[in-house]
């Protein structure tokens, strides 16, 4: 075993991290200490290239979206990601609640609402600065989850927790975090140093950092959410924000794989080898990317058919109705079916007067494309079966 370990740690494709962990077995830490390392295998390199190609494809597809749909589409992904992140941690949230928090964050003077910090962090994920000092981890925690943490689980040290923390799967202890705030600060300092080490390929580096942060477990609660945002912030700058924003969504669909990958690293026989963990993480990242690619490709095909339909002679005489219907159909295809839009919202989106929007709405109602669902404020939505009918023509 010693010979094989030496071969893996000192081979041409091996990377040593200078990050050390304690072994963990049968619910307890062991006396062993291991340096985290990985081997850049053919499978790992292939996955790395796959993620980069997926990212390039996502950027290309996003560039084909109508300008007005780009921001709402990203916001849809944010809500999906935030809900997944909460579900992983057993935090209950509804899409409606998260959408309201997101709208509030964008206000000039936002009211304090549950999940405001979470939605704000996701909305500006590509603007989170690289971590330069250990206080930055506390700042992320304060922005992201502090308002959601129970009083008894809030940090009791200067920045982080002072006492011990254990992670359980409901039956047995699966991890014990680094003990004492002094050791937490030292470990986070080592993590910052590692994040700056350009000798390690970026994707590997960010996923290693994610594991080490979870290993440290600097807080009593909120480590999972802050840890996934940590890696997401780096991914958003290296790839693009769409890939980064689906990481939790992909994990939530395969939580068993995610937790198994995290837990196996500290097992003494593993000797700190991160190779298989990195394979699992890049597979999850690629899975999330592919879900976006599939969604965008299908939606763009639908948009093409809608645009062809809107070129028909019948629309040449009523440009206002055509613009509003096209807008509503596009929203339904890319964002959400049965989206309800008020007269005021349609005025804002189209830049048309109240009179013109009212006329167009009445025309579309009469033609059977939309229906009025509220009178105060006047609001409409696409009729059931309308999109399917248009796409089949």
Automatic annotation (TrEMBL):
Residues 81-108 form a coiled coil. ATP binds at residues 221-228, 258-259, 270. It comes from the Bacteria. Keywords: ATP-binding, Coiled coil, Nucleotide-binding. One of its GO terms (molecular function) is ATP binding. The keyword NAD does not apply. The keyword Transport does not apply. The active site is at 217. Residues 132-280 form the Fido domain. Pfam families: Fic (PF02661). This is Fido domain-containing protein. It comes from Paenibacillus pasadenensis. The lineage of its organism: Bacteria, Bacillati, Bacillota, Bacilli, Bacillales.
């Amino acid at each position: 075993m010693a010979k094989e370990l030496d071969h893996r740690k000192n081979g041409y494709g091996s990377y040593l991290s200078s990050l050390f962990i304690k072994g963990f077995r049968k619910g307890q830490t062991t006396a062993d200490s291991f340096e985290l390392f990985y081997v850049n295998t053919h499978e790992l390199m292939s996955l790395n290239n796959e993620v980069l190609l997926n990212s390039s494809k996502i950027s290309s597809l996003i560039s084909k979206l109508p300008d007005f749909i780009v921001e709402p589409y990203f916001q849809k992904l944010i809500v999906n990601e935030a809900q997944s992140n909460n579900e992983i941690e057993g935090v209950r949230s509804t899409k409606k609640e998260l959408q309201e928090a997101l709208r509030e964050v964008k206000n000039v003077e936002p009211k304090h609402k549950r999940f405001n910090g979470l939605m704000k962090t996701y909305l500006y994920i590509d603007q989170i600065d690289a971590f330069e000092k250990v206080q930055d981890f506390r700042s992320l925690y304060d922005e992201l989850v502090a308002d959601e943490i129970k009083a008894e689980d809030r940090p009791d040290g200067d920045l982080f927790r002072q006492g011990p923390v254990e992670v359980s799967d409901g039956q047995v202890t699966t991890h014990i975090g680094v003990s004492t705030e002094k050791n937490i600060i030292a470990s986070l300092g080592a993590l910052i140093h590692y994040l700056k080490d350009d000798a390690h390929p970026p994707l590997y580096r960010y996923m290693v950092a994610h594991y080490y942060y979870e290993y440290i477990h600097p807080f009593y609660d909120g480590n999972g959410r802050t840890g996934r945002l940590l890696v997401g912030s780096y991914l958003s700058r290296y790839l693009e924000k769409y890939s980064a924003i689906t990481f939790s969504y992909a994990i939530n669909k395969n939580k068993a794989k995610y937790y198994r990958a995290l837990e196996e690293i500290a097992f003494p026989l593993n000797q700190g080898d991160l190779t298989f963990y990195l394979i699992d993480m890049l597979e999850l990242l690629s899975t999330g990317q592919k879900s976006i690619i599939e969604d965008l490709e299908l939606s763009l095909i639908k948009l093409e058919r809608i645009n062809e339909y809107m070129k028909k002679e019948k629309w040449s005489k009523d440009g206002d109705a055509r613009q509003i219907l096209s807008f509503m159909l596009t929203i339904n295809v890319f964002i959400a079916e049965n989206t309800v839009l008020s007269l005021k919202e349609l005025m804002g989106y189209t830049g048309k007067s109240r009179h013109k929007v009212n006329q167009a709405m009445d025309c579309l109602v009469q033609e059977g494309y939309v229906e009025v669902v509220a009178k105060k404020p006047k609001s409409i939505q696409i009729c059931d079966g309308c999109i399917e009918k248009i796409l089949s023509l």
